[in-house]
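(Fold this chain)
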Amino acid sequence: MTDARRLGTDEAAFIAAVRSDDTARFTLITERHRRELQVHCYRMLANYDDAQDVTQETFLRAWNKRESFEGRAALRTWLYRIATNACLDFLEKRNDRTPVPAGLPGADSELPYLQPYPDRMLPEDPQESVVARETIELAFIVAVQHLPPRQRAVFILRDVLGWPASKAADDLELTVASVTSALQRARVTMREQLPGRRLDWRSPATHELSEGERGVVKSYIDAHERNDLDGLMSLLRDDLRFAMLPDPGTVVVGAKDAVDGWISGGLFQAGYDDWRCITTTVNRMPAAALYRRTSDDPEYRLLNIAVLHIVDGKIAELTGFDATDKPWLGLPPTL
């Protein structure tokens, strides 16, 4: 979605709402941008709860700064500026929002604060959604976290949103030269973090799951519901990367080590042998919601979300999220 799409209409209506101190009209106009601003904050923060909070902070700041809007830039641009700086302020106050070494060869790092993003909350506009998958997948979100906050903001504004250098510089109160330099450094880091993946984030990319991906998720769910350890093992690549969040220190590299850990944790044994699962999607990725029933409970209760990165028909990365009492995915708590 380009700024020109509503340029003039939104700006005039916004200024009129400000002059009349019309909070209802102000809310109606700004709410149109909530979903895309929330995705922007999520890319900056890698945490859905925090993205929601900072997006709300963005609207509060917009209301408090409403008199400063003169219509010289698009309202969308003005809101992005506020959201970006709200994210930077958030990150400045937190010293727990950087990747930490995983301590395993080939595991690189882990983000205990990483949360999945429910697809139902992605922007509905098809032009926003068409680039959403490769720039919202977990691997991309994790890679972006390796950038220093201001460099991260430059990269997202320039290479994801496609803003010109002058516009990004104005947004971040930097010089064009500083933005260009920061972008060059960010691109080097992203190439290191995402080897073998395309780096032209602004060109169209599919956001639909393939039939192959759907088939692997179905097989993964069937294996769980049948307590089929061999079937589960057959779906995993030998170099599987597994992490269970938000617990730190859970990164495992290698399918055998991952499965051994699951078995030692009780998988498919008493108490962990009565499963019902449903297919879902988060971060434009295939996922399974795992519900467990124990002997003293008549209902299956949501336990984990397993997000799968599938390569050549096998699971290359499996990121598990504790889903207990997590209503933000919009999943039923029981089956």
